[in-house]
Each structure stands twice: as structure tokens, then as C-alpha cells.
Amino acid sequence: MKKRLLIIFTLFSFCSFGLFSQDSLLEEAQEILGLDETNLQEETISQEEFEYEDIYVIDNASIFSEDEFSTLNEVCSGLRETYDFGFHIATDNDPTSYDIELLAEDYYIDYNFGVGPEKNGILLMLNFADRDYAICCYGDDAHKVFTDSKKDYVADAFKPHFRNDNWYDGCMAFLQKSEDYYSEYHDKLLKAQLKAQEKELAMQEHRLYIDFDLLRAALLIGGGISLIIALAVCFSMKAKMKSVHIAKQASEYIPEDGIDITHAVDNYTHSTTKVIHHESSSSSHTSVNSRGFSHSSGKF
Predict the structure, then answer these.
(1) Which residues lie closer than 8 Å to 8 by C-beta, 6 or more apart?
(2) Helices (H), 52-147
(3) What average pLDDT does the structure give for the chain?
(4) Which of 66, 90, 132, 144 is most open to solvent, judged by the fewest CB atoms within 10 Å of its CB?
């Protein structure tokens, strides 16, 4: 019996020593490496943040100085925070790329550009091998705002700078013009959301909701129709009160005893031309390809 107890006690001592030694070795290793559980956790979090860090500007052609690159990133980041929309710039110097639009799409996908599940955003892609540019848009919001014609207007803002090799000012002009267009759309979205919230709150509180913008438009339309009807009635009454009328034939102005015409002169005075302007239907159109991108491209 004593021998059995001695054997059990010996085995228990060896197991306890092994577990203690493992813990001691782990603590010693952490002390040598200067790590503890908190540091390991912080390192993991910072690594995840780095992997999902937003990228706004890619300068593979190395055309920006360090300060210019930093400023463009800050501007794009600020626009992202303000509008929840991606504004991006990318440069390359690839002589093997013959399609600037396809290069822009590859950059957009590879660098995970855009914001939200739909990856809404706009990208200015520059390839210095052939001095090509492409304005690339992706997502429903981007296609609604940056129509084909508006992309051309954005290009008109930066191309004069690029022709003088002023890359930084040209990219800033791109961001400014893009913001101008998107801010209008963003303000309309916020206004529509505010109206929807007010309407829902009014329904919850069982009170009448009045859309003053719609009411104002209805009053203007109603006033215009009333004015047209009033003018029509006035002209109709005025026509009935006339006792004389304009003759349709020149013979009605000739006296009964006739007139003597000694000479006649035919002088050309003027001609009247009517010009009708037709608004282009492409001003609100956006051409989207099979990959879901829309583009405007050219040379700079």
C-alpha cells in the first residue's frame, strides 16, 4: 500500500513540475522578446488595421513630391469622410498597357478603391508612357453624378494643368471639380432623407405632414395656369369690343375715286429666321460597360 502511494505521489510530482516548467518557459520567452499578452493583442489589432487601411493615391510613376503626395491623400481622405464616396488618383508609366480604361479598371479592383458594398467612387488614372488619362467611375451613385458629359467637364478642369506638366495642380483641379458635382447630389440626398424622416415622424405622432417644396411648386403651377386663363379671357373680350379691323387686302385702303401712282420703289429691309435649339439627350446619360465601369479618356 505504501509503495502504491509512493508511486502515485512521484508521478504527480513529475506532472506538476512539467506544467510549471512549461509556464515558466513561456513567461521567460515573453520576457526575452519583450512581449506580453497585451502587446500581442495590440500587435494583432494594428496588423488588421493596416490590412484594411484605405488607399486614396497610388503614385507608381513617382510624379509627386512627398509633400504633394501627402496633401493629395489628406484631401481624398477628407472628401471620403464628408461624402462617404471614394475619390482616387493613380499614376503609372507602363508602355505595355495599350488600353488606359482597362488599366484604370484593374487599378480600381486591385487596390480595392471605392466606398461601401457597391464600391462607389471616381478614379483619375494617368499613364505617362503615352500621356493617356482615364476618368473611371464605379457604383450607382457615381454613374448618376458623373454622366458622360460631366466627366468631360471634369477633364476640361485638369487638362490645361497637365499640358504644362503641372501634375499636382491638375490633380487638385480634378478633385475640386469632382467635389463640386458630387456635393450637389449629396445635398439632394440629405434633403430627401430629412424629408423622409420628418414624414415618418409625423405619421408616428398622427399629425399632418406638409411638403412645403411640393406645395410651393403646386402654387406656382396653379398660378401660372390661372394667369394663362385670365389672359385668354381678356384677349377674347378685347377682340369682341373692336369696331374696326385690319384689312386683309390692299384694295380696301384705296379711295373710291382711285389714286394715281407715278413711280414705285422696292427696298429690301430684312428677313426673319427662326432658330430652334434642341437639348442634347446625352447630357444626362452614362455609358456603363459589362464590368460595371463608366469612362472618359483621352490624351494630356
Answers:
(1) none
(2) 66-83, 100-110, 140-145
(3) 77
(4) 66
